[in-house]
Amino acid sequence: MIKLVLRLVLVAGVFIAVSRYVPGFRVANWTTAVIAALVFGLLNATVKPVLKLVALPVTLLTLGLFGLVINAGLMALCAFLVPGFGIDGFLPALIGWFLVSVGSAVVGWVLRG
Of 17, 60, 72, 108, which sits with the fewest C-beta atoms within 10 Å of its C-beta? Predict the structure, then answer.
């Protein structure tokens, strides 16, 4: 349980860090970042598998590039659902998704070791 809370706080820190360096990716405060990290994790666990299955033909036709659109869309959906978290367009959503995913993977790797 402690590792789960620690991971949530560290991923919230990743959200804050990304908001400092990516123009158009805004997080109001730490509370918003924690909620955004929680919602983003829930969306990735529940909505993303369904979207990937539904979009499989388009993803195959585009040689996997449509997967980037799905991921950026999930980040934008997270921004829509969480007050105080905003994204201004596709490119900040895509860059933000990539950096948050890499940061989350690093946090997971550090906590495992």
Answer: 60
Name the pTM for this structure: 0.91
CB 102 within 8 A of CB 51: no
- Select from 48, 42, 39 the least CA-distant residue to 69: 48
Angle between helix 2-21 and 90-112 (nearest 10): 140
Which tokens sit at 75? 């980040």
CA torsion through residues 45, 97, 53, 55, sign: positive
Inter-residue contact 51 to 69 (CB < 8 Å): no
Each domain of the chain, given as residue ranges in start order, spans 2-112
Single-letter amino acid code for the residue at 12: A
Instruction: Count Cβ atoms below 10 Å from residue 98 Cβ, excluding itself.
Output: 16
